[in-house]
């Protein structure tokens, strides 16, 4: 049975996405790894859900992992405490992702990827498997992102809501996000979300 042909993601304009991994004349399927990044409230999880459905990928999102494993232990907004636990989750998520990729599966990682260093870890691991990770950078104005967060906090839709994002959290994370360079995006795209 032939591997499914990819459809272009509804929210992205990634010209290379048509068949770079899925079609080379004989419909040979190759594994793909997509890293979804963007600032707080840009819609990474919503985008990742849609993208994983459209591409037949397994999706991993960091927020439910952090909520389930560590939220009850968090007593204050301590970045070093939080990032240490995020890194633990990253390791376990990668272990499973690597197995999926080895089976020519597709993986979408919605892990925040706040910094270039975080993105590089997964991009370099993918290169070791012979895969060029695609970085999908989502961008939207700050005021729109704040509105989305307010709506998400009110609606608490379980498909995208893991915990309430407060103004303090938003302001805390805002200066920490590092926009991907053109070099990082050479296999990916920018999505105006």
In short:
The protein has 193 residues and is an alpha/beta fold.
Question: How would you describe what is shown here?
Answer:
It is built from 6 helices and 5 strands, in the order βαβααβαβααβ. A 5-stranded parallel beta sheet has the order 2-3-1-4-5, with helices on both faces. The protein is of the alpha/beta class. Helix 2 (62-70) packs across helix 3 (79-102). The longest helix is centred in the middle third of the chain and has 24 residues, at 79-102. It has one domain (15-192): Rossmann fold. The model is unreliable at 1-13 and 15-26 (pLDDT under 50).
| Helix content class | 40-55%
Using DSSP, what is the number of strands? 5
Give the topology string: H per helix, E per strand.
EHEHHEHEHHE
Strand order of the largest sheet: 2-3-1-4-5
What name is given to the CATH topology?
Rossmann fold
Strand content: 5-15%
What is the end-to-end distance?
36 Å
CATH class group:
Alpha Beta
The domain count comes to 1
Overall pLDDT metric: 80
> Would you identify the CATH H-level superfamily?
P-loop containing nucleotide triphosphate hydrolases
Q: What's the multimeric state?
A: single chain
Which regions are unreliable across 5 or more consecutive residues at pLDDT < 50? Answer: 1-13, 15-26
* Overall shape: globular
The helix-and-strand class reads: alpha/beta
- What's the architecture, going by CATH? 3-Layer(aba) Sandwich
């Amino acid at each position: 049975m032939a591997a499914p042909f990819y459809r272009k993601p509804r929210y992205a304009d990634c010209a290379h996405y048509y068949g770079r991994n899925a079609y080379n004349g004989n419909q040979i399927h190759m594994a793909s790894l997509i890293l979804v990044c963007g600032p707080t409230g840009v819609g990474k999880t919503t985008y990742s859900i849609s993208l994983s459905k459209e591409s037949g990928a397994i999706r991993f999102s960091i927020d439910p992992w952090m909520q389930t494993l560590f939220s009850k232990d968090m007593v204050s907004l301590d970045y070093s405490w939080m990032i240490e636990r995020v890194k633990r989750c990253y390791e376990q998520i990668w272990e499973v992702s690597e197995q999926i990729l080895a089976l020519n599966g597709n993986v979408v990682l919605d892990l925040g990827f706040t910094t270039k260093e975080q993105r590089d870890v997964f991009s370099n691991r993918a290169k070791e498997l012979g895969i060029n990770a695609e970085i999908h950078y989502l961008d939207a104005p700050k005021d729109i992102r704040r509105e989305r967060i307010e709506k998400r906090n009110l609606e608490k839709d379980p498909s995208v809501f893991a915990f309430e994002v407060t103004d303090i959290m938003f302001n805390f994370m805002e200066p920490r996000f590092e926009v991907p360079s053109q070099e990082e995006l050479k296999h990916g795209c920018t999505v105006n979300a």
